[in-house]
Known about the structure:
The chain has 344 residues and is α/β, with parallel strands linked by helices. The protein has helices spanning 2-56, 83-95, 106-115, 130-135, 154-169, 179-186, 203-214, 223-233, 269-289, 298-321, 327-332, 334-342, and strands at residues 71-75, 99-103, 120-122, 143-146, 174-176, 197-199, 238-241, 246-249, 254-257. Pfam families: Carb_kinase.
Amino acid sequence: MPQEVQMLAFCFISVALSLLVTLVCLNEKVFERYYSSGSKSHRGMDEDFLSLVKSIVPPLTSKKHKGQDGRIGIIGGCQDYTGAPYFAAISALKVGADLSHVFCTKDAATVIKSFSPELIVHPVLDSPNAVEEIDKWLPRLHALVVGPGLGREDSLLKTAKEVIEKSKTRDIPIIIDADGLWLVTQQPSVIHGYHKGILTPNFMEFTRLYEALHHEPMDISDRQRSVTQLSVAMGNITMVLKGEQDLITDGGKVITCSVEGSERRCGGQGDVLSGSLGVFAHWAHAASAAGVGRSANPSMVAAFGACSLTRQCNNQAFQRHGRSTTTTDMIQEIGSAFKKLFES
Ligand SMILES: *[C@@H]1O[C@H](CO)[C@@H](O)[C@H](O)[C@H]1NC(C)=O
């Protein structure tokens, strides 16, 4: 008999033990699920915006005529700066624009043309009737990027300002970067409250603009708050504050783009962003006009798309080239980065 008791006891203990193990496992599963949904709320927002971006990318079909996927204009390029407008214009093409026009000064035109036969280069920015010359093209453009390589010469800034005014009356999306932001810092009214306007400052340009509008030093410890304040002060225009993470807002919620980039920042990366943003802005506003995209602000969707793409290009280029990564390497990654993010 004692042997049977022993056997019984042994069985009891085994059953109890396996029950315990099952319970622990179950618990772990529950814990795991809880934990991952907890950490997901942030990524969830990214995924929302990622799927919104996917929904605005026009499919490639044979039915379209040339120009439907976007004709983008770049206002910039002068004697001192020829790389920036080239980077912005070629990025727009690589993202999927049909045509990229560069409106630059006479002495920059030959240089920019020589970088690429794919761009249309107009040597008009310093001509006496520059605004008139550019205005002729506006009806054919879907988005405008103002500032890459514009420089700070008064006459060029004045031309840029008048071109912005004309584009606003035509309801064209306008991206303002680099020296274009210098102009906005001097005269915020030029783009204030324009719902298809997007500013893409780096931290220094942002600080300058903030202090010009708020007449007080910025609290650098809370960037989310500062970027929201500035957007509201600019009439809820879409702001993209570039940095370790890109912050995007229209004065309401702030979305963060934290697609992994790299430690390497090259001069010209901002031009990849502004050029691609021109295309995304056109697509997003066209999609929104056609009823796609629920209630999201098209400018925010476009900004998220361009920021994600630029960061992904940086990441891929860095994997290939490490510390020797340049903007040209990033531009070569646009095709595969785009596919990876938005077409998979
Ligand atoms: C700007 O956005 C905020 C937050 O969405 C809103 O409360 C405010 O009314 C908006 N201002 C304008 C001028 O639309």
